[in-house]
Design brief:
Elements (H helix, E strand, L loop, with lengths): L5 H32 L3 H8 L23 H9 L7 H11 L1 H15 L8 E5 L14 H11 L3 E5 L5 E2 L10 E2 L5 H5 L3 E4 L8 H7 L3 E3 L12 E3 L1
Parallel strand pairs: 1-2, 1-5, 5-6, 6-7
Antiparallel strand pairs: 3-4
Helix pairs in contact: 1-4, 5-6
């Protein structure tokens, strides 16, 4: 798509990233509110998406990942200061999106507590380390932040991801080294909690549901499933 300058081309890329980041932040904020109100955000989005014009569905999640949306808009925030301009939408969206891993961890703590389990010494298996499904990219993945937060609370955390065999050498987590464990019946059974972060297509979620004591579902992979061991986050 030809444009008049490299500046316009880069601005186009930034606008697309910011558009997504702001709308993801909006739906994440609605999720936080509707969770307190006892309303299913996924049902609300699906209902709104039936409107044939004027609405584009965005979906909540455990946080943003990749190199684009979590990072690139803030280059523009920095550049805007040279022009005495404050990019309030970008900064507010960033604040909301960066809080999502903390929300997921708190939902995990609460779910364990309701089952008379402490997060301290709890065995937690994180499913999916990549920042989105069916890719091998871990850059800025919320899974790594969630693993770190859980370990800070004393949990024993492992992860499984067929695309990410090892987590190490990350800019924000230089001391973190973990290897993907096997996703077996035995591994699932011994976990106090299984936390679905990335919904890879290769995951057998029926098998995971059957073999897990408790599942925290951040991706709505168990939509419509009535199960006592599933908590939406």
């Amino acid at each position: 798509m030809p444009v008049s300058s490299t500046e316009a081309a880069e601005a186009s890329k930034l606008l697309e990233n910011i558009f997504r980041g702001v709308n993801i932040a909006l739906v994440n904020e609605m999720k936080l509110l509707f969770d307190r109100m006892g309303i299913d955000i996924w049902e609300v989005i699906n209902a709104s998406a039936t409107k044939p014009f004027g609405f584009m569905p965005f979906y909540p999640g455990p946080g943003l990942g990749g190199h684009c949306i979590p990072i690139d808009p803030f280059y523009l925030t920095w550049k805007a200061r040279e022009y005495d301009f404050s990019t309030r939408f970008i900064e507010l969206a960033g604040e909301i999106n960066t809080q999502m891993p903390y929300y997921v961890v708190q939902k995990t703590v609460d779910a364990l507590n309701e089952r008379a389990k402490s997060i301290k010494e709890a065995k937690v298996l994180v499913l999916g380390a990549a920042y989105k499904k069916d890719v091998d990219d871990i850059r800025e993945s919320p899974a790594v932040k969630i693993i770190t937060l859980l370990e800070e609370k004393g949990a024993n955390v492992e992860y499984h991801d067929p695309y990410i065999s090892v987590i190490e050498g990350m800019r924000k987590y230089p001391g973190l080294v973990k290897h993907s464990v096997e996703l077996s019946r035995e591994v699932l059974k011994e976990q106090d909690c299984v936390l679905v972060i990335t919904e890879h297509s290769c995951f057998d979620f029926s098998f995971i549901l059957e073999e897990s004591n408790l599942i925290i579902d951040t991706r709505n992979v168990y939509a419509g499933v009535k199960a006592e061991n599933v908590v939406k986050a």
